[in-house]
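User: Modeling request: complex.
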Amino acid sequence: MSHLLEVRDLSVRFETDRGSLHAVDRVSFSLRESEVLGLVGESGCGKSVMTMATLRLLPRTAVVSGEALFEGVDLLKQSPASLRRVRGREIAFVFQEPMTSLNPVFTVGRQIGEVLRLHLGLSKRDAQDRAIELLNLVHIAAPARRVNEYPHQLSGGMRQRVMIAMALACDPKILVADEPTTALDVTIQAGILDLLRELREQIGIAIILITHNLGVVADVADRVLVMYAGRKVEEALVDDLFAAPQHPYTLGLLGALPRPGVRLLQEIPGRVPSLTVLPDACTFAPRCSRAEELCYAREPAFSTVRPQHAVACIHPGSGVGVS
Amino acid sequence: MSVLEVDGLVKHFSSGNRILGGSGAVVHAVEDVSFELARGEVLGLVGESGSGKSTVANCVARLIEPTSGTIRLHGEEITHLSRRAMRPHRRRLHIVFQDSYSSLNPRFTASQIVGEPLRLHGLARGAGVDSRVVELFERVGLRSELRFRYPHELSGGQRQRVGLARALSVEPSVLVADEPVSALDVSVQASILNLLRDLQDDLGFSCLFITHDLSTVEFLCDRVAVMYLGRIVELAPREQLYATPKHPYTQALLSAAVVPDPVKQRARQRVVLAGDIPSPISPPSGCAFHTRCPLAQQICADELPPLKPVGSGHTAACHLIGPTGEAPTIGN
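Assistant: Request completed. Predicted assembly structure:
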């Protein structure tokens, strides 16, 4: 399988009044065709910023370095005009909050149609027909009626389906779904996750799924990247990550989840470090029970524990967790 | 002995004044909700958005006026007490909110926030307030020097701890917790849940725990009530609810929850409900769930099913449950 997207040493720094903020620090990853890659981490770990940076969707205060090769072309070096041909057309985004991502004064059909007319040059009528097809694809009942409705007439789950329909309009190769079910109820979330899985199987789209919910990752991802404080700390196939997590942070995250029969949840002591400094050390060391001098002496290199499973820790292993 | 008894609670909101452009329609937020909270018990109130669970919490804490029904705290009716008459009762029942930022006064230091109820209820004065605040900070796992900080100088988890310290400052016998961990990251969530359980074990207060997350309920609660569109559809001891859910909605809810284990999660049979939760402005006739229930029959649309016993301490409201408590199963 070939790599659709290959990100190498991507760093994102924000210049703020209080100095530099290193949101993402030298993260590399790749995405294969029709693969679902889960990006996991807690607030502020850089998972959203990283994907937005690949399409240069960040404000000017962001300084981005590294490479983001899409089908061999570095997106970070493209002109705004050629980037526009990739955004929405080859790589499309779905965000967490469907209400704020949709324009309240235009009908659903017109908003989906806009993408089609802009990118594919369809006529108004063709765009409308295709919009109905797309609504059908994402399982919205009575698409011919819904296409003429406004966002406020739709429920939260339906709005998210409209967002997905819009993202799929130009038949993109990659769908970036940033916390697509976080704002939704569990029963609605189940339907959206089924839809994502179905799209991958039927139209073979590759998906980058950004989420803080490990259950969602367990449900749909093939491979997972765990991020902490702007750095990648672990990367593995989904089954391996859950069956044999290696990084103490990953272990901590998994242990923090309430499960049947568990009387005491695992806590991760301390707090996420400030992103203003880039220590040449393990950023998780101050919160880690396995930490020793060496962890503070230099940044741990990635070591491979099994095929496709890499971890940035001097003491990897799924034995004892963080206390 | 119940510390809190809620009987036939109803709350209707009017959705705006017609003259000012509102529809004047009535939102049926809570319909005929009854439950009891025993001493030292943690009762989970679970439901999706719009189920009315937070409205129940706000009625119980008397932050909003119930439309009808009765609320008894330690046997005394507090349903329609005036603000002034309610005041002495506020010591016995306190609430913790989801959004720790908007529920703490930004102009107060953490110490003032936690000390305020102590002063208002005359539980401490002068230097006594500060020493009690220090004690409470220790109790909820905050370093005492943090008490001089303002809410914006604290992290989300720390703010939630301040909210807990404030609630516990008056040593209430009932704690109402409205989605106290929903806005927090997983690792912070774990520490707050552990803390809540510890405090509950040590102090023995009763807790009405409102949440949409079934896994936190399983961790914390002794009994669970499931709400759908303003009504309790099932109420059972925790183990029973998870092992033998009777109501089709409870079954759907449990099957839709994702578990953090790819092997188990992918092998699970998921029942995806059709459609969305109906509008509480015009709730469906009969059983409110009949519009989405894969098993619905004619009777479900015609008649409201009563909550009836289906096992020991287990009640459910579904026409399809047999006389001996045998339940229909959705998903094949």
